[in-house]
Design brief:
The protein is an all-alpha fold. The chain is built from 4 helices and no strands. The chain has one domain. The chain is 85% helix and 0% strand.
Length: 87
């Protein structure tokens, strides 16, 4: 489970980076969230910090895994929908 702990730390760090360097996330975030992109960068950053931290401990790992799977599917669906809608 050291791999999941490491992945959790990486995900939490990526989430924190949304606040430290939001411009780096703008191009990718704009694909899924063309409206109010800046606010969504912060929301996604907070979500990734929470999910990442959940993955770091055994007690919350299952919830973190489920949450990360749902979050990833949701981001993919939003991106696909907005790509279709923009054509």
């Amino acid at each position: 489970m050291a791999l999941l702990r490491t992945a959790g730390i990486a995900l939490a760090a990526t989430g924190a980076a949304h606040f430290a360097a939001p411009k780096a996330f703008k191009p990718v975030s704009k694909l899924a969230f063309p409206n109010d992109t800046d606010a969504w960068i912060k929301r996604n950053g907070a979500t990734e910090v929470a999910l990442g931290l959940a993955l770091t401990t055994q007690k919350t790992r299952k919830a973190g895994l489920v949450g990360t799977a749902v979050y990833t599917a949701w981001l993919g669906a939003r991106t696909a929908y907005n790509r279709r809608s923009s054509h």
